[in-house]
Design brief:
Elements lengths: L2 H18 L4 H16 L4 H7 L8 H13 L3 H9 L2 H7 L6 H11 L4 H10 L10 H18 L2 E2 H16 L4 E7 H5 L3 E2 L2 E7 L4 H5 L4 E7 L3 E7 L5 E9 L4 H9 L2 H13 L3 E3 L2 E4 L2 E4 L3 H8 L14 H6 L14 E5 L10 H10 L4 E7 L11 H16 L4 E9 L10 H5 L3 E5 L10 H7 L7 E2 L17 H11 L2 E5 L9 H8 L5 E4 L11 H10 L13 H18 L1
Parallel strand pairs: 4-7, 11-12, 12-13, 13-14, 14-15, 15-16, 16-17
Antiparallel strand pairs: 1-3, 2-4, 5-6, 6-7, 8-9, 9-10
Helix pairs in contact: 1-2, 1-5, 1-7, 13-15
The chain binds 2'-deoxyguanosine-5'-triphosphate, calcium ion (2 copies) and zinc ion.
One calcium ion binds next to helix 11.
Length: 576
């Protein structure tokens, strides 16, 4: 994650705090505007500052604050405000329908300084005692609280990923620590995380050392084997962390237990019991005598089943598969030979072809599909036909001397009537066509739009099929079975969009699609250099759905991929 998002959040909080305190409205506005602008920048703000570029909407004063953040990781003004206003009030101000003004009234009239108190006065109706607060306001606040809880209960895994890895690395560096592993839903790579679970094996008591970490806020428990606290993420939200310290001889059994899922654990324990074993977090036992548990492999061996990769331990059918040794070799990131969704400068990306090639070389890729947006998607720099033609020429020239092949591609809008945003003569010239929908009318069912578009023989891939954003936007209304069935008939590939905001298709939908015998592509949707790093998230989704290398087209070599796409197109044309 780049610092734009972090600074934007801080500016938002400063604006809230200033407004709460009744500061100058222009100042408040300046912070809000800057926050908005930061969120919409393509490149990290430090890049603009280095280049000495002025950014419209961010004045000198706020530029200083940004520099301060880049240098020190915080902003003094922000810290000051945080110490002046109870933390809970910041949370209240983030609730939809409640702005700083309402929060101020709630605080002054009824002493409401956290969400729990707010809930109480809403339920008891005490809120109506405040002058000017009527039924309508009460209803809105109720709705706001519900929405807020729905959004903030769980954390999208991509948003907390780096923070969690940092915490793990910190713990590994403490002397005496022998083993550290992230367990729970994080190790299973669920798309949202409730809390962080960490397992440690250590030769001495290390709780004091762990608790020295500056981002640890409240300590809930601090025993020899269990430590639990809240940890501040870089977006300033708090997440609970549960740490367990176990003995070496229990390491494997504890890894299994705390990785979960709970449903998986219950099933596995039942299976162990059927075989006459007792399985728990301390080990595997027969007649109460310890017979193993140092490593996961050891436990699986005793149970005489196949090793079950953590990503698939969700209590679906993995244990049945493991009993029959039917879990295939899951796809790995090293199988990937190229990225099939990348945006260049020609639309809303910021990279030129040389930069893209350089990144691809680092990743050992053979090819990259350049999939700029099509003309209707103006907000994302959609390309007019002439620009596309010019770009294609440039790509062809580039490919003459390049080490990485750039595919002529596009992410083409499916228009409201299901037609495509470029004419067929143009689509035909592209090596790879992604079709997708970015504009949906309220409550629109987009099934027919997709089905119509899928009649076009040049649609190779449906990109981010459901349109959902993890924790922020529900999937579009659509009949996925109809889409999957059509994809299978027409040999159209379904994308696993690896961007952490999207993860679309996700594991559940991939599993569903797989029953229709379709192929998948993984694309990062990279718009800048950091974007390529998302491939790992897409791989995790694929693994969770038990996909192998054979299920994913970007494990093919360049020649294989090109001929595969051609073959699919021939099939579609002949079918028509
Ligand atoms: P989360 O935190 O909601 O994203 O999901 P998890 O899976 O990380 O759940 P969490 O943190 O409550 O517990 C971590 C693991 O500990 C869980 O995956 C399995 C294990 N566990 C927790 N409670 C139980 C239980 O009551 N029975 C069994 N068998 N295992 C449990
Ligand atoms: Ca957890
Ligand atoms: Ca937990
Ligand atoms: Zn898109």
């Amino acid at each position: 994650m780049n610092s734009n998002h972090l600074i934007a959040k801080i500016f938002e909080e400063i604006a809230d705090a200033l407004e709460f305190l009744g500061d100058n409205p222009f100042k408040v506005r300046a912070y809000r505007t800057a926050s908005y602008i930061l969120e919409s920048l393509e490149e990290d703000i430090s890049v603009y500052i280095q280049k000495g570029e002025k950014i419209f909407g961010i004045g000198e004063d706020l530029k200083e604050k940004i520099l301060e953040f880049i240098k020190t990781g915080k902003i003094k003004k922000h810290e000051e405000l945080l110490s002046k206003i109870p933390r809970g009030i910041f949370d209240i101000m983030k609730i939809p329908y409640i702005g700083p003004k309402t929060a101020k009234t709630l605080y002054e009239e009824l002493g409401v300084d956290n969400i729990e108190k707010l809930k109480k006065i809403v339920e008891s109706g005490d809120l109506l005692r405040i002058k000017g607060f009527g039924i309508k306001k009460l209803e809105n606040i109720k709705k706001g609280i519900e929405l807020y809880q729905k959004l903030s209960e769980r954390y999208p895994i991509g948003e907390i990923y780096q923070d969690v890895i940092n915490l793990k690395n910190y713990i590994s560096s403490i002397s005496g620590v022998q083993k550290v592993e992230l367990v729970g839903s994080f190790r299973r790579f669920k798309e949202t995380i409730g809390d962080i679970d960490i397992l440690i094996c250590s030769e001495k008591n290390i709780s004091e050392d762990i608790l020295k970490h500056p981002k640890i806020k409240d300590i809930f428990s601090k025993g020899d084997t269990k430590i639990s606290f809240s940890y501040e993420l870089s977006n300033t939200r708090l997440i609970q962390v549960d740490i367990r310290v176990v003995e070496e001889r229990s390491w494997g059994a504890a890894l299994m237990y705390f990785t979960g899922s709970k449903e998986h654990n219950i099933l596995l324990r039942e299976f162990a019991a059927e075989k006459g074993y007792k399985l728990n977090e301390y080990g595997i036992f027969r007649d109460n005598i310890y017979i193993g548990g140092r490593s996961e492999e050891e436990v699986y061996k005793i149970l005489e089943i196949q090793y079950i990769p953590p990503e698939i331990r969700e209590g679906r059918n993995e244990i049945e598969l493991a009993k029959k040794y039917l879990i295939p070799k899951l796809v790995e990131i090293t199988d990937i030979k190229g990225d099939l969704q990348v945006h260049s400068r020609y639309s809303d990306g910021i990279m030129d072809f040389w930069e893209i090639e350089a990144e691809a070389l680092k990743l050992n890729y053979e090819y990259i599909a350049i999939t700029d947006h099509s003309k209707s998607l103006k907000v994302a720099g959609g390309m007019e036909v002439e620009d596309l033609i010019r770009r294609n020429k440039e790509i062809k020239k580039f490919n003459e001397n390049s080490k990485v092949k750039l595919l002529l591609g596009a992410e083409v809008e499916i228009l409201s009537d299901g037609s495509l945003d470029y004419p067929d003569e143009i689509l035909e010239q592209l090596d790879i066509v992604l079709a997708s929908i970015h504009n949906v009318r309220k409550d629109e069912d987009i099934t027919e739009r997709y089905l119509k578009a899928m009649e076009n023989p040049f649609v190779d891939i449906i990109a981010h099929p459901t349109g959902r954003l993890v924790s922020y936007r529900e999937p579009y209304k659509l009949d996925l079975d109809a889409i999957f069935k059509k994809a299978s008939e027409r040999k159209i590939i379904l994308e696993i969009n690896a961007h952490y905001n999207r993860l679309d298709l996700n594991d559940i939908n991939i599993l569903k699609a797989k029953r229709y015998n379709v192929k998948f592509s993984i694309g990062t949707d990279a718009h800048n250099r950091n974007g390529f790093g998302m491939m790992g998230f897409g791989i995790k989704m694929a693994k969770k759905a038990i996909l192998t290398k054979e299920d994913i087209i970007n494990t093919l070599s360049y020649e294989e991929l090109i001929s595969f796409i051609k073959e699919c197109r021939r099939h579609r044309i002949s079918e028509k």
